[in-house]
Amino acid sequence: MEKITMISVVFLLLVLFFSSSKASIEYNVLKLGAKSNGKTDSTKAFLQAWTSACNSDYSATIHVPRGRYLLNNIVFNGQDCKNYEITFQIEGTLVAPSDYNIIGKSQDWIKFKDVNGVKIYGGTLDGRGTGLWTCKLASKGCPHGATSLKIGNSKNVVIQGLSSVNSQKFHIVIHESENVYLQGMTITASGNSPNTDGIHVEASKGVTITEADIGTGDDCISIGPGTKNLWIEHINCGPGHGISIGSLGKVFNENGVQNVTVKTVAFTGTQNGLRIKTWARPSKGFVRHVLFENATMINVENPVIIDQNYCPGRQNCPNQVSGVKISDVTYRGVRGSSATEFAVKFDCSSKKPCSGIILDKVHLTYGKKPARSSCASVDGSTYNEVQPSSCL
Ligand SMILES: *[C@@H]1O[C@H](CO)[C@@H](O)[C@H](O)[C@H]1NC(C)=O
Ligand SMILES: *[C@@H]1O[C@H](CO)[C@@H](O)[C@H](O)[C@H]1NC(C)=O
């Protein structure tokens, strides 16, 4: 008899354990007071959903149904979260306040900070940046503008199928984070909007960006100091300034960029294609182990470019050279058309020349005329067919 009781208790415990580990709880922002009219501030309801999800013993889904939800600056802080499985399921659009000053004076509009194990599926972010761009293009004294979505000091984050339109400044920033996976994003802003970079990654490792369509007024993807093990694949870029490692080396004590793969990217009408850019200033930064592979250029001004003499307005760096050492960079399978004669430009630091630069299967044209390449302070080699003929 006792034995049977024991067995049934164990059995009951097992059932409880498995059912609880599978249990999941949903928080619908509408039920927490959010309004889907795009006019009523729903910040509180979203924060309440987050706090409840964080305190939940079960995996939690925050559901944002169709409609438009006005959000002020909002921080989803994971510091005291005991839940490592929080999913945002977004069918609606999150909209910034119509007065750009409200979020424009802070760094970020929507921020995830110290989170671990967050997934964001779907949704659109509308930063309503057009008014601020007009202000910036016409005058000084405008607020600097907010990043639409920042992932900071976080790990194990997945963002799938999210769209971002008309951010005030950068659309997405990944900062001091680890193991972040971005897939199927669509990012749009006008081609002449200032500083509306699509995705900026810095001081982070293990970031993957795949299947994104990005067209903005600045870099489609920009890669800042301290980036390691970054994988970028299947991107359509344009309009915009291309995919850029940099600007780097603005300060002396700077972490390097290493192990970056950029694969299967189509650039259309962009200012640059594959770019590495550093300030002409002393720095102990570096760029190493970079593979650019299988890129298509359509009418791109600078398809392949290393520029180590960045010094806007010739201020703060005249007569200086970059201290950033660039090494082991491969361009393999780069084809298409250049909008300028110099389709390949390597303008490296005379103090720390670029080394290990490899061109392999490059075919770039310039209308009916031959495209050209230019080299300064660079050492490397070529494999297979390379057009324009290499100056390495
Ligand atoms: C380089 O980064 C990739 C991810 O992008 C990673 O899989 C690989 O292990 C890294 N290589 C080294 C040597 O760290
Ligand atoms: C190279 O890029 C093209 C699109 O531009 C794509 O169709 C093809 O699959 C890519 N090849 C490899 C080996 O990734």
Give your account of this protein's structure.
The chain is mainly β and 392 residues long. The protein is built from four helices and 28 strands. It has helices spanning 2-22, 43-55, 100-104, 130-138, and strands at 24-28, 37-41, 59-64, 68-70, 74-77, 86-95, 108-113, 116-126, 147-152, 155-160, 163-165, 172-175, 178-183, 186-188, 199-202, 205-215, 221-223, 228-237, 243-248, 257-268, 272-279, 286-300, 302-310, 325-338, 342-347, 354-365, 372-376, 378-387. Strands 5-7-9-12-15-17-19-21-23-25-27 form an eleven-stranded parallel beta sheet. Strands 8-10-13-16-14-11 form a six-stranded parallel barrel. The mean pLDDT is 95. Bound molecules: 2-acetamido-2-deoxy-beta-D-glucopyranose (NAG) (2 copies).
Task: Describe what is shown at a glance.
This protein has 392 residues and is mostly beta strands. It is built from four helices and 28 strands.
Task: Provide key terms for this protein.
28 strands; 6-stranded parallel β-barrel; mainly beta; Pectate Lyase C-like
- Described by the principal axes of the CA atoms, the overall outline is globular
Using DSSP, what is the number of strands?
Answer: 28
Tell me the CATH architecture of the domain at 219-392: 3 Solenoid
CATH superfamily of the domain at 219-392: Single-stranded right-handed beta-helix, Pectin lyase-like
CATH topology annotation of the domain at 219-392: Pectate Lyase C-like
Q: Radius of gyration in whole Å, from Cα?
A: 24 Å
The count of helical stretches stands at: 4
Q: Kindly, what is the distance between the CA atoms of the first and last residues, rounded to a whole number of angstroms?
A: 86 Å
Mean pLDDT: 95
Structural class: mainly beta
The proportion of residues forming helix, as a percent range, comes to 10-25%
Strand line-up in the sheet with most strands: 5-7-9-12-15-17-19-21-23-25-27
Main beta-sheet annotation: 11 strands, parallel
Portion in beta strands: over 45%
Bound ions, cofactors and other small molecules, one mention each: 2-acetamido-2-deoxy-beta-D-glucopyranose
CATH classification, class level of the domain at 219-392: Mainly Beta
Poorly predicted tracts of residues: none
Pfam families: Glyco_hydro_28
GO molecular function, one term: polygalacturonase activity
InterPro entries: Glyco_hydro_28 (IPR000743), PbH1 (IPR006626), Pectin_lyas_fold (IPR012334), Pectin_lyase_fold/virulence (IPR011050)
Subcellular location: Secreted, Cell wall
